[in-house]
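Throughout this review, each integer encodes one residue's backbone shape. One record appears below.

===
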Amino acid sequence: MIRAGFTFEHPTTKTKTVVLESDAETNGMGWLLEVTRYSKLGSDLGEHLHQTWTETFEIIKGTAKYKLDGIEKIAKAGESFVVEPNHFHVHPWNADEEELVYRQRDHFEHPSPAAVQDILGIFATRTGMARDGIRLKGFAKLLFQSATIRTAIKHENYVASPSMTMQKVMGATLGLLGELLGYKAVQPKYVGE
């Protein structure tokens, strides 16, 4: 299980994420992360939205770029911004060569420890697979991506493309098949189980 102190680092972008609060500390109402980025390669996470929770980003050090409703914006150390439910956004990335540190608070409408574990588990699994050099291709990649979509939409999270309807279809069909074949979005070896 992912608890406070759990840390994962992306091998390419060197983005380091430390869980400061998990469902145990928030009573299932979300999480608090501290993210340190060194790379201008862009966000580790594509454009997406959450239908039922709010995200607040506080820039601790450096200058960040981020995207909200398709518009690229900048936030500097000491500033914060809020992403309300149902707004497509991209998490902060470095605006320059300087180190960027930010805190990300996700706050749910209703307690959901499963959402905390699943969504953080997706991040940890994807990062762990990249660290281990696991690069799925072809149909295997499609099955894993569909299983990830299936897990994310269970908690009302959607990526910008394909459409939400298509994501629901992919999750219910290819995602289920992927899970049955072992392509799980959250893999125990990457979440400390």
